[in-house]
Amino acid sequence: MPRGVFFVARDIPAVPVPPHGSNCRPIALYVRQEPIGRDMTEFDRIIDDFAFLDEWEDRYRYVIELGKALPELAEDKRTAQNKVQGCASQVWLVTHSDGGTDPVLTFEGDSDAHIVRGLVAIVLAVYSGKPASEIARTDAIGVFDKIGLVEHLSSQRANGLRSMVRRIREEATVRVAA
What we know:
CATH architecture: Alpha-Beta Complex
Number of strands: 6
Helix content: 40-55%
CATH topology: Sufe protein. Chain: A
Structural class: alpha+beta
Shape: globular
Number of domains: 1
Radius of gyration: 17 Å
Order of helices and strands: EEEHHEEHEHHH
CATH class: Alpha Beta
Number of helices: 6
């Protein structure tokens, strides 16, 4: 197998990335050269892949690819109750709880816009599968600011991202208080 950096897409074998300076652009998820450790979270992987990409055009493509990999939300879950207010695009978030005293919350989400669907995937990678108390304390917007994501979004998309984060953190706070 050739050495170098590879990109992958689900159910498609890994292939080499075109040489630097090539006009050919891969449209798949970039991954690190070295093996990913077992304790590396999905969000850590996203941050690492994001840092690998130099150009914002490539980072936008990556966000769109993350959205394409997000499982589609069932039509019966696309309700007014699940719709996130404050987003220019339609965004739905569904919360699931394991019912414990500090419940572990998992989320499903979707959007009708490609880039926003990718932002949903990133937000879910930050929060899904964590205890409600940890979710309530986690400021994802601060993390997104560090990687420059928020500053490269339109004001409408940045506001929508903040609305998603606020909705998830408020849901977690309610679950912890219950």
